[in-house]
Design goal:
With 199 residues, the protein is an alpha+beta fold. It has seven helices and seven strands. The strands form two sheets. The protein has a four-stranded antiparallel β-sheet. A hairpin with a 2-residue loop joins strand 2 and strand 3. The chain starts with a helix and ends with a strand.
Length: 199
């Protein structure tokens, strides 16, 4: 991909050719439907065509607003994001689990996935889950000119967005920010499994 970036950034109006760079969170995808600003449904990605309803479990995650705030919120929007668990939360959960005489969890991603699929939302509530919004699906009206502007709109509406997201206008900037994310990777407090570029 990086070898094709110079052509993508090479000519034309630079404002249409910026690249949004973001860490790829190692969590579980969730699609959250807001209607008139209210959270009405949430699903897993499932098989790509049909997802699993996880609405009641998503409602237990403090990071995820039950209502979006702002005069520019579309009447209907499907927000896409990643549910994850920080290492601090995972270690605390494992300490409590072992103290209760139970088998410890293997890793934060699998633990987050299992928590989202619980039949009892109170079990999900007891798991310290977090969320980052990174995109959208269906939407009733356009709400931003670029990916970066859309993410800023999410932030205004109350959705958590990753602080390492950056808009880059050149290949040098893209590589520089990749290197910066790499330098911070071990101290982020959560797992990532790469970097995402959106042109």
């Amino acid at each position: 991909f990086l070898c094709r970036l110079p052509m993508a950034l090479g000519a034309g109006d630079a404002t249409t050719r910026t690249i949004t760079v973001a860490p790829k969170i190692d969590g579980v995808s969730a699609n959250i439907l807001y209607r008139d600003g209210e959270l009405v449904q949430a699903q897993t990605r499932g098989d790509g065509a049909v997802g699993e309803d996880i609405t009641e479990n998503i409602l237990t995650i403090a990071d995820i607003p039950k209502r979006l705030n702002g005069g520019d919120v579309p009447e209907e929007i499907e927000v896409r994001g990643e549910v994850y668990m920080t290492w601090t939360a995972f270690e605390a959960l494992n300490a409590a689990t072992v103290a209760a005489g139970q088998k410890p969890y293997v890793n934060p991603r699998n633990t987050a996935s299992g928590a989202l699929r619980q039949l009892d939302p109170e079990v999900t509530r007891s798991r310290p889950l977090s969320f980052f919004a990174y995109g959208w699906g269906g939407v009733s009206k356009p709400f931003a000119e670029t990916q970066f502007d859309a993410l800023n709109a999410f932030g205004r509406w109350g959705l958590p967005i990753n602080p390492l997201i950056k808009r880059c206008a050149s290949l040098d900037e893209v590589i520089e920010h990749y290197d910066e994310i790499s330098r911070q990777r071990s101290s982020l407090g959560y797992d990532i499994d790469g970097v995402v570029y959106k042109l």
